[in-house]
Structures are given as structure tokens and as C-alpha cells.
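Thread: flavin-adenine dinucleotide complex, take 2
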Amino acid sequence: MSVQQASLRETIADQTSEQFIPDRSSFPRRTAAVAAAAATEAEEVDLNARFPQKAIDTARQQRLLGVQIPQQFGGDGASMFDITDMCYALGRACSSTAMIFAMHQTKIACLVRHGAGSRYHEALMRRVASEQMLLASSTTEGQNGGNIRFSTAAVERADAEISLVRNATVISYGAQADGIVTVARRASDAAGSDQVLLAITKDDYTLEKSLGWETLGMRGTCSAGFELKFKGSSEQIFPEGYDKIHAQTMTPVAHLCWSSAWAGIAAAAVERAQLFIRKAARGAGGQMPPGAAHFTAAKMTLAKLRAVITSTLDTYAAHEHDERALSSLDFQSQVNLLKVEASELAVETVMSAMRACGLSGYRNDGDFSVGRHLRDVLSAPIMINNDRILANIATASLMSAVPATLRD
Ligand SMILES: Cc1cc2nc3c(=O)[nH]c(=O)nc-3n(C[C@H](O)[C@H](O)[C@H](O)COP(=O)(O)OP(=O)(O)OC[C@H]3O[C@@H](n4cnc5c(N)ncnc54)[C@H](O)[C@@H]3O)c2cc1C
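Output below.
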């Protein structure tokens, strides 16, 4: 940790001891401050594939990393409506910042919804709020790709002490995080699908880099591969099995937050296309340029994208505390299809924006460039591959009835 980061943490800790008063009406202002910081470094973050330090430091200063933690544990108790709005706003400024925020908030949601009542997890919630800790995610393992519901590495137990050694092929901002939420096989004699979730902090694990992150887009997420070695207490395992956490929280929240971040990227590209078309029309005495139809198409797919996210968000919020509804086939299909649809629509929107701008959009320089947005958004369909998701839900889709009315 740099001297600057250490002093930032101290300032945050001081502010906390001065009794922090949550104020939800401040969310837009606090998010705008982070987005402004993110926008200033977005190009450099992409160019150098470096972590968006300024944006995340600002998120810490604005206390957004702990915003979802309930007020009783020192946070603001932000809802999923608030969090997804934040992901969208950050996506408009810097894709990597938005995705880091989205992944962090997904881990926080697991902590909030499945950690209550557990001494260790409640203490961690307090720490996240007071120290503004950044949590990363480790689900990908070895050559297993996006098959999250299967783990190879198992939790080894020696009395109350446990350990885990994991070939974590991708951990976004692993080197910068203060903690990791990871899946693992419950025990060395358990089946690969019998998984637990653990929340571990930097003082009880080491990471040895095994793979770099030299990618087309989302370069600032710094999603390198590591050998993860952890030693700690069995208290760090979430009390509920991962199968429940996966269905009720991890998948819905990840898909809602990721989709909102992608929608933000798409919106940023549409905004650039709008500026381009306006400028071209002004230059031609009010005559619309030939690319205008692509701009209209971009706005149309952005509207669809927002609609699909908000409709799933409404369903999720309506059943947030209803375990049965969240685990139902219909809801699971809806959240899985959200990821597939949102990622495809986001790519389509940015492509249309690019075509609306023509060469000005294709260039990497200039005010109308959408190259970075396109490279970043192309990560969406492969971040848990859409093919894998569609194949996994094929049977469930076959079992659910075709809706008889529009609002079924
Ligand atoms: C920006 C970004 C950040 C990420 N951050 C993290 C992180 O922080 N932590 C983490 O653990 N992981 C992270 N991941 C990894 C992610 O969770 C998935 O593991 C990864 O995207 C899967 O990649 P894959 O293509 O290698 O694997 P696979 O999902 O195995 O896909 C490989 C190929 O197989 C095909 N395929 C796979 N299954 C099927 C099927 N059933 N039917 C048909 N075709 C199939 C796919 O179409 C694809 O072509 C991140 C990924 C991205 C893009």
C-alpha cells in the first residue's frame, strides 16, 4: 500500500469514528464525484492496462465501497436500485471502474444477505464500512472457464483452522483488493458441486501471479491469474451453502450490476454518436447525415437494454426476501437471460453508435471515438459465456409454460 493510500485509509477511519450519518439523498452527488474522477483517467487506464486508482480512491472518500452495508453495521443500506444506478453512472465514465464497482458490490451483497448472524461476517461488514475495503471475486479456476458451480480446490480442515490453495485463473483487481470472496469445494472428499463460499482478507492469504491481463478491453480491471494460498478460521466460511447463495444473490446481483455497467458503456457511446450527428447536421445546414439511422438504432437498443434491466430489477426487488421465489425456475431463467440479452444489446448499441459516427467513431483519437467502448463492451458476452448460460438453461426453459398474457 502506498503512503498516499495509507493516509487515505486513516482519513476514512477518522471520519468513521466521528460518527457517520447515512444520507441516501447524497448518492447521486457522491456517485458523480467518482464518475468525474474515473472519466479523467479512463483513457490512460485503458492505454496502460492499469488499475483506476484515482476513481477507487474517490469511491473510498465518498464512502461508496460500503454504501450497501446496512446502517447498523456502519453503511448507508443502499438498495439494489441505488447500486445499479451507480454502476450505470460509472459505466458512462470508465468501463473498468464500473465493472470493478459492480463486482465489488456483488460480493458485498453476498456478505449482507448471507453473513448476518455470523460473528465473522458481521465484523467484516463493519470493516468494509469503516475501512472502505475493496473485495474481489474468485470463481474461475484452472481450465474450468465459467463453470462456477464446480470447484476443484477444497477447503482443508485441521480443527478450527482451515486452508485453501486455489489455481485462480482470473481475479479482477486481485493485486489491489483488500479481500476476496471465493468459492471452494466443501472438503477434500466432497463432490465438485458441493461448494462453500469464503470471505478472506489480505492478512490471511497470499497471491502469486500466474497469468497477466493483456486484453482487448476492460484492461483496467487488471484481471490477472494467481495461485491463491489461504490459511484462516472456519468462521470465514459463510453459514449457508454456496448453492443457495449462488441462486439467491450471486447470480441475480452480478447480472443486474454487470448489465447496468454495460448499459452505462452503451449510453456513453450513444452520447458520442449524438454529438457527432448534431455536429454533422449543423455543418450541413440542418441536413441529417447518412449515419443518422444508425444513431436512431443505437437509441432504440439502449432503450430495450434499460427496459430489460429495470424489469428484472423490479422482479428482484419484489422477491428479494422470498427464498422460494428467488430460487424458482422462472426467476432463475429471467436473471440468466438478462445477462445474455443485456450483453448482446450493449454490444449492438455500441456497434450502431460506431456506425453512426463512421470514421470519427473508428478513430482512436477525437471527441467521437467509440473504439474503447466497443473493446470494453465486447467482454460482456464472454464474461460467463452466453453459450454456456443458454446451454445451462435449455432444460428449464423447456419446462416453463409459454406466457398466456403480456404481463404473466
Ligand atoms: C472482464 C472480465 C473480468 C472477469 N473477472 C473475474 C473475476 O474477478 N473473478 C473470476 O473468478 N473470474 C472472472 N472472469 C472470468 C469469468 O468469470 C469466466 O470464467 C470467463 O469469462 C470464462 O471464460 P472462458 O471463455 O475461458 O470459458 P468458458 O466459459 O469455458 O468458455 C470457453 C468456450 O466454450 C464455449 N462453451 C462453454 N460452455 C459451453 C456450453 N455449455 N455450450 C456451448 N458452448 C460452451 C464458449 O462459447 C466459449 O467459446 C472475468 C472475465 C472477464 C471477461
